[in-house]
Amino acid sequence: MSFIHQSVKRVVTSVVVTAVCALGSASAFADDKVYRLKLAETWGPNFPVFGDTTKNMAKMAEEMSGGRLQIRIDSSNKHKAPFGVFDMVKSGQYDMGHSASYYWKGKVPNTLYFTSMPFGMLPVEQYAWFYYGGGMELMEQVYSPHNLMSFPGGNTDVQMGGWFQKEINSVEDLQGLKMRIPGFAGEVLAELGAKPTNIAPGELYTSLERRTIDALEWVGPSLDLRMGFHKIAPYYYTGWHEPATELQFLVNKRTWEKLPDDLKAILQVAMKTAAYDMYTQSKHESGKNWATIKTEYPNVQVKNFPPAVMSALREANDRLLKEHAEKDALAKEIQESQASYLEQVRPWSNISHRAYLNGQAEAEK
Amino acid sequence: MSFIHQSVKRVVTSVVVTAVCALGSASAFADDKVYRLKLAETWGPNFPVFGDTTKNMAKMAEEMSGGRLQIRIDSSNKHKAPFGVFDMVKSGQYDMGHSASYYWKGKVPNTLYFTSMPFGMLPVEQYAWFYYGGGMELMEQVYSPHNLMSFPGGNTDVQMGGWFQKEINSVEDLQGLKMRIPGFAGEVLAELGAKPTNIAPGELYTSLERRTIDALEWVGPSLDLRMGFHKIAPYYYTGWHEPATELQFLVNKRTWEKLPDDLKAILQVAMKTAAYDMYTQSKHESGKNWATIKTEYPNVQVKNFPPAVMSALREANDRLLKEHAEKDALAKEIQESQASYLEQVRPWSNISHRAYLNGQAEAEK
To answer: Which residues bind Na(+) (chains A, B) (predicted)?
Structure first.
């Protein structure tokens, strides 16, 4: 390393300004201003993993900027509008948000596609689609008209299919099944006769215990352990509906445009790294928590939905997606981009990860 | 966002200094110096994916620092010592390096463990071990005595088992097999009677074509395509020996200590992000290139080593590792850390990624 005693252009400019101003206020230095941004997150205070991600992002931004970029995080107890994040960032009430894109599908249907799709890509397949397969550009088309920029905001890893009180052995077993499963996946299940419901998180445990509902999905062991569902439901089904749930950072475009170039770069890299870090952390937490569940509740049974059920779910999924695509040209374009990317990348995942995991599991026997 | 017209402490200090110095040289501002670091990479110029990673890291560092952190990259054509990177960074001839930890095992045996181990963790399992499972701390113990800091430097994704001229149906088929496979994996194969050789990359194609060797491993489709092996070898075996090959950034500790805190943070995040990005890029490139190979050479057959061969390889691997552990307490500690982490995380990978990939592949039929 050589220490070159020579300043970059913007510093030289500042020096000249200071020389002219003598002891003038430091506020004359546009680049040395402290930028204070406010971020609204959908989650409550100290929410595990998700909340760690916003803190990680803000800490990186502060450290890398030498304190010039300060991001204050308001959890839902503060702003009282967990599902108002889109609107609050759009209006400029908040500069940034941390949430999930598919929460906004009632408002802007095409936001559905940027979290995770049933039978879709796995986490790194989806990162590859975002960053190398055209996904970021499509997301920009959806968010730009709303004065918003959207970025990947952290991955939960593959979500589990959920906790069930009874086994699902056939498509008929889904008839009348009362399950807490929100969003598009709930619509898919409803197509097969299930009764998806939405229940506040605080009431989930009791609802499942008292059989007010027959099943529920939450996330995966990383967040399920503390909810305690393993104590009251015997079956843990593997996932199909959210193989790569990616949270979202939102940035108000006017806020973005006011930032100097170096802070733009810092903010963008901090968001990207915090997102990747959350995937790593989710892997760790799910590994650790699943080990705990298996040790303390060895009777919990992991189940796969039978092929006939998976086929029926997939047909219902494809039917609903087709309806969306017929109504909206951009929806069609996004669906086609995702389908063709998956078709390209999955054969590689099969000869790499799938072959390796199967080979190692075979050797364990 | 609120623009607070108030400077952070370091800036106020600079202003005072300037006021005192009047038109004094900008070099008085310690924090505004341009730090020029030199990085030596093991790869040649414009090496795909690996070389993109150093460029990506340097670009992020420059942009985030507003030009105050400049990293010059020298490829192997410049420094002429692809496997001298460890020594050149240790001595301070270079500030940084980009290479792979296991290249240094002849010099420092415990560097072996920080790239990828046969039958070991997958890429994100390994990131979880590095960042949440004690891996970074163990790596520091190995590198610190050499005046070096080591960081993850980008993942190739699961490496393929290699291109073979003949099928491997039994352990006997490995007897006398001439295969280009360097490093520890080569030692494992040698235990079973194979003849591992090392051949310069430029001679690999001809060696395989003329059957001077029977097989070779390189990386995976991301880098194999341009080598052309699919044109001359009919069998592409799935991986066992490097399930998560992670490259390495090296930093000279004296260089590190001279950097101001904000540039330390910028450099560390730039390295981490470039590493994650390389994994995403590798996924993309392998997906794309494997699609090309399958289309243009549909007769290439993907093969798994039979279970008996895998078991024999694993036994040989375990035997060699045990020998290392008996000689070196830190080697034993690292091996135990990796084994216990894998034991914790793999059951989760099996009920998430493995179950999902198998379910989806089943549905494709």
So the answer is: 218
